[in-house]
Amino acid sequence: MNWQFFLEVLIGGLLAGVMYSLVALGFVLIYKASGVFNFAQGAMVFFAALTFVSLTERGLHMALALVITLAVMVALGVAIERVVLRPLVNQPPITLFMATIGLTFFIEGLAQGVWDAQVHGLDLGIEDKPFEVAGIFISQFDLFAAATAGILVTVLAVFFQYTRIGRALRAVADDHQAALAVGIPLQHIWAIVWAVAGFVALVAGLLWGSRLGVQFALTLITLKALPVLILGGFTSVPGAIVGGLIVGASEKLAEVYLGPIIGSGIENWLPYMLALLFLMVRPEGLFGEKHIDRV
Amino acid sequence: MFYRETGQLKTTYAADLQIFPIRQDRIAMVVLLVFAFIVVPFIGNDYWFSAILIQFLVLALAALGLNILTGYAGQLSLGTAGFMAVGAFAAFNFALRVPEMPLLVNFVLAGLTAALVGIVFGLPSLRIKGFYLAVATLAAQFFIEWALTKFGWFSNYSSSGVISAPRMAILGFTFDTPLRKYLLTLSIVTVLALLAKNMMRSGTGRAFMAVRDMDVAAEVIGIPLLRTKLLAFAISSFYCGIAGALWAFVYLGAVEPQAFDLNRSFQILFMIIIGGIGTILGSFLGAAFIVLLPILLNVSAHLIAGGNVSSSLLSNLELIIFGGLIIFFLAVEPHGLARLWQIGKEKLRLWPFPH
After folding, report:
1. Contact (Cβ atoms closer than 8 angstroms) between residue A51 and residue A115
2. Does B324 touch chain A (CB under 8 A)?
3. Most buried of A13, B68, B288, B329, CB within 10 angstroms?
4. What distance in Å separates residue B152's CA from the closest CA in chain A?
5. Residue B69 CB neighbours (<10 A)
6. pLDDT digits (tens, 9 = 90+) for B306-345
7. Does the interface ipTM go beyond 0.85?
8. Which residue of chain A is at minimal alpha-carbon distance from B336?
9. CB contact under 8 A, A102 and B150
10. Nearest Cα to B280, choosing from B39, B17, B61?
11. Do A268 and B312 touch (CB under 8 A)?
12. CA B79 – CA B261 distance, rounded (Å)
């Protein structure tokens, strides 16, 4: 076995995994605060990236486009809270889940209807050039993405831990009714969470968009993020990161070492199988809240 | 006053155990069946049979299968299309390798194969619950789709992975015209739906519902959890498998594994949510809604905008309206269309007096 090659694959996988974590992060935020399994996260990533790239293509400066896109995502988050979540308060989780799938169709149609359905290139000004460290090639872009994810998680952690709104968010996550009882405005909190998830979607959309091009296929990264999510646990921010690393690394390693044996195309289901086996041992994922059944 | 069971006294045990205990329901059922079996063949045309009615019936059967698993036994599954694919490819292989096998036996065997696969992928349900299970069933969806594409044996080494239906006949009667295919599908779906309706009020169905409502409590009162959950997966996959076989043989005629992708699973999940979770009727109402809505949107969009709007914008508008309507329906009636029927029956019972 060639250790250098192994390390290169491993690091490539880990860095790719960080990209999955970015998407999974949006899921975790919303699930934590409102108990909604938001299938539309992938569509939001697509919508954000497409809005940004269309604005810059119309000659807007990048920073201005970024601000406008952020405003749009926040508005979208608030609108979702108002139109979708509020009438569905107290419904079973599966109904809310279905509503977010309906939302997915809506956002996909909206994004392509307002802009267009072509593939756009997105250049963030970071070169995707591999460089060499001790004989191992590492992609510069992947490193940048990993650093962004790291900063994002740190900022979110600080936001959740030390700000007033962050404390309110954690209170809502712990117990809706108790939070309401001490006077936390639940609906504002939900709007904020969806807006923050929109912000995360924007970051993920920019990174994924410059990697793959801004196109409809971006919505499919939802499916990449789901195994990350169940590996890490639905309710844990660090879980999303660790899950992403595990999925990314094992996916790349399996592709290189198992692929020749059982055939290509296994990366579609391998993360799910991995997550499934893992869940047999820990049904709540790595960092999920332990669920105690009581009669 | 139209829908009242007053005065319908039951004097035998058989009368007490009927599937439809109320006379009006029985009459409605007979009328419906007569309409579907006798009137529709006269008023329908080939387009309606082959494009809409068969599709509706097959998808309703798949929705029924998922409803048994998700609606009655409470195990959320996103792998429905995967189990349909197993049924379709099993039916194809049985027909290919044992050509003298009767068609109905073939379908049943295809369903049983799907049931076996369903049991395997249902095993984790004992430990994994809720959304974790939903995502875990995606493993089944992706793995089955991959395996059927990857291993040529399943599609008899057809280069494109497409399987095509053999000639279908029962006792020398061939099913070649759209009308005959419709009648074949209708018969199978009717029998299976009545079976399901009956099963869900038996001990099995009650065990399912107890597990759905709270599995720990169900275990405490003596319902074997593993057996019940696996049985739910098996029965559900059996229905989905037969639906898959019908989809391949009767509706499309030639099918590839990609016809059973994740979107199909979501489509069927939509049907049971819109139609009503945990009701047999809901599976049919939901299937009708989801099959007809896109057609309706398409037709009306072309009627209104006809020609002067680009087709890509139209298809995006359809997406927006479809998504919006789903959210609207969930907000207005979260228990689905079957609940509306329930409310309607209550109203009919009291009408014209308010109490």
Report:
1. yes
2. yes
3. B68
4. 12
5. 31
6. 666 677 777 788 788 888 888 888 888 888 888 888 888 8
7. no
8. A95
9. no
10. B61
11. no
12. 9
Contacts B150 to A, Cβ<8 Å = 263, 265
A109 interaction partners in chain B (CB closer than 8 Å): 316-323
Closest partner residue to A293 (CB to CB) among B216, B277, B313 is: B216
pLDDT band at A125 (very low <50, low <70, confident <90, very high): low
Q: Which amino acid is at A41?
A: Q
Interface of A with B in 59-98 (CB under 8 A): 83-84, 87-88, 91-95, 97-98
List the end-to-end C-alpha distance of chain A, in Å, as a whole number. 53
pLDDT in tens, A212-260: 778 887 788 888 888 888 888 887 788 888 888 888 888 888 888 877 7
pLDDT at A184: 87
Supply the pTM of this predicted model. 0.88
The dihedral sign for the CA sequence B262, B142, B76, A77: negative
Phi-psi region of A149 (alpha: psi -120 to 50; beta: other; left: phi over 0): alpha
Give the side-chain half-sphere CA count within 13 A for B57: 26
CA distance A203 to A135: 31
Which pLDDT tens digit goes with each residue over B5-33?
Answer: 778 888 888 888 888 888 888 898 999 99
**Which residues in B lie closer than 8 A to residue A230 (C-beta atoms)?**
132, 135-136
Q: Give contacts of B220 with chain A, Cβ < 8 Å.
A: 295
pLDDT at B83 over 80: yes
- Does B226 touch chain A if contact means CB atoms closer than 8 Å? no
pLDDT at A87 over 80: yes
B131 touches chain A (CB under 8 A): yes
Q: Is-contact B71 B279, C-beta < 8 A?
A: yes
Which pair of tokens denotes residue B153? 């044996």
CB-closest option in B124, B273, B323 to A279:
B124
Q: Is A24 on the interface with B (CB under 8 A)?
A: no
- Cα torsion B211, B216, B222, B226 to 10°: value is 60
Phi, psi at residue A131, to the nearest 5°? -130, 165
Question: Stretch A199-204: mean pLDDT, rounded?
Answer: 89
Q: Which residues of A touch B216 (CB under 8 A)?
A: 293-295
In chain B, residues with a C-beta closer than 8 Å to the C-beta of A92 are: 334
E strands, chain B, in order? 163-164, 169-170, 173-174, 254-255
Strands A130-133 and A136-139: antiparallel
Assigned token pair, B178: 């759209």
Distance from the Cα of B285 to chain A's closest Cα (Å) equals 17
Q: Pull the structure tokens for residue A185.
A: 């405005």
pLDDT at A258: 77
Q: Residue A132 phi/psi, 5° resolution?
A: -105, 130
Contact between chains at A272 and B320 (C-beta distance less than 8 A)? no
CB contact under 8 A, B322 and A112: no
CB of B224 within 8 Å of any CB in chain A?
Answer: no
Specify whether the CB–CB gap between B67 and B256 falls below 8 A.
no
- Token pair, residue B118, equals 């369903």
Q: What DSSP element (H or E) covers B194?
A: helix B178-199
Q: Which residue has the higher pLDDT, A97 or A265?
A: A97
Maximum alpha-carbon separation in chain A: 61
Confidence band for B177, pLDDT divided at 50, 70 and 90: confident
